[in-house]
Amino acid sequence: MESGSSFVEVVASPRRAAVASMSDEEVSDPKALLEDRSKAKCVYQWYEYQKCVKRIEDDETGQKHCTGQYFDYWKCVDKNVSACCLYIQLVAEKLFDSLK
């Protein structure tokens, strides 16, 4: 795939994807791309995690942690990636139905 092309573009243009996959370019993971784009929708959870990290940075006992906030952030990212993948699946189904 060309750099800058997204998974949606690949689904929408299978011929282009086939040509791109034959080249010597490095293959990229679409999940990582989707996660990067979904992080912008989880700013509140990231902010809460950063607040927690700052609050406990002076803890020398090692008892305090921000695991809950960290998992809340990644749960939000995963939820948004799943929603995006569902949309891509629907677009792909419509595309392939029109090709039949």
TrEMBL record:
Q: Does the keyword Thylakoid apply?
A: no
Disulfide connectivity?
52-66
GO biological-process terms attached to the record: mitochondrial electron transport, ubiquinol to cytochrome c
- Outline what the protein does: Component of the ubiquinol-cytochrome c oxidoreductase, a multisubunit transmembrane complex that is part of the mitochondrial electron transport chain which drives oxidative phosphorylation.
- Name of the featured protein: Cytochrome b-c1 complex subunit 6
Localization: Mitochondrion inner membrane
* Taxonomic source organism: Oryza glaberrima
Please report which protein family the annotation says this sequence is part of: Belongs to the UQCRH/QCR6 family.
Q: Which residues form the Ubiquinol-cytochrome C reductase hinge domain?
A: 29-82
User: Which Gene3D superfamilies does the record associate with it?
Assistant: Ubiquinol-cytochrome C reductase hinge domain
Which PANTHER family does UniProt cross-reference here? CYTOCHROME B-C1 COMPLEX SUBUNIT 6, UBIQUINOL-CYTOCHROME C REDUCTASE COMPLEX 7.8 KDA PROTEIN
UniProt-listed InterPro entries: Cyt_b-c1_6, Ubol_cytC_Rdtase_hinge_dom, Ubol_cytC_Rdtase_hinge_dom_sf
Give the record's GO CC terms. mitochondrial inner membrane
Q: Keywords in UniProt for this one?
A: Electron transport, Membrane, Mitochondrion, Mitochondrion inner membrane, Respiratory chain, Transport
